[in-house]
Here is the input.
Amino acid sequence: MKHIKKFNESKSNNEDNLTGFIRKLNNILDDKSKIEEIISLFPKSIIMPMFYKGDEATLIDSGDVVTITDIAWKNGEYIYYFENNDGDEVYTYESEFKF
Here is the structure.
């Protein structure tokens, strides 16, 4: 596994931590003002996952596109579960995916 990148709390834009969540809200809601209102409720220290169950994501090293089956938190970073080519459920860290 690659070295885990730690969250940098000095980021000036809270949306960096909420990018995946904003993407999901855009899929659900058509009203941009409501999305902005929801996002404004999150403190700057909140880190939401980049991907959610059912999302397709691309692994950096192999280029494989996988479907996320579950999400958890480990070693200060989100991990995502998916089925590999053998049909086994495996997980990898968020930093292993293309954004």
Q: What stands out?
A: The radius of gyration is 15 Å. The chain has two domains: 14-46, 49-99.
